[in-house]
């Protein structure tokens, strides 16, 4: 059995010998807002009605294996879909645009962010 402690009950300094705690942060599933207004309240942009694009969803953790080009290498991080042929991959040190053909899903988005603390 596992347990998650929600709130401010954990002290600032936690002494765990040989264990790496997992920090879980609620990120949500996005917004229901279908239209973004400008400062006067008039419609500025409409959000697409689809939740998935090419099998991916914003918040999925993926591995990008880019073979050649300026950004060649292997990156792991969270993606943001944009309903066009490139997604934004937020790696640990930077953001890059990547085509879905280079992506492999590790973890599907569930509304939480998981970080293993050292």
Describe the sheet with the most strands.
5 strands, antiparallel
Strand content: 35-45%
Overall pLDDT score: 83
Please count the beta strands (DSSP E, at least 2 residues each). 9
Query: Domains counted in the coordinates: how many?
Result: 1
Structure description:
By secondary structure, the protein is mainly β. The chain has one domain: SH3 type barrels. Helices cover 0% and strands 37% of the residues. The chain is built from no helices and 9 strands. The chain has strands spanning 22-26, 35-37, 43-46, 61-66, 73-80, 87-90, 95-98, 103-107, 112-116. The strands form 3 sheets. Strands 7-6-5-4-8 form a 5-stranded antiparallel β-sheet, with no helix packed on it. A two-stranded antiparallel ribbon has the order 1-9. The chain starts with 21 loop residues before the first strand and ends with a strand. The mean pLDDT is 83.
Summarize the structure.
Helix content is 0%, strand content 37%. The chain is mostly beta strands and 118 residues long. The chain has one domain: SH3 type barrels, CATH 2.30.30.
Keywords:
118 residues, mainly beta, SH3 type barrels, five-stranded antiparallel beta sheet, two-stranded antiparallel ribbon, 0% helix, 37% strand, flat
Secondary-structure blueprint:
Layout: E1 22-26, E2 35-37, E3 43-46, E4 61-66, E5 73-80, E6 87-90, E7 95-98, E8 103-107, E9 112-116
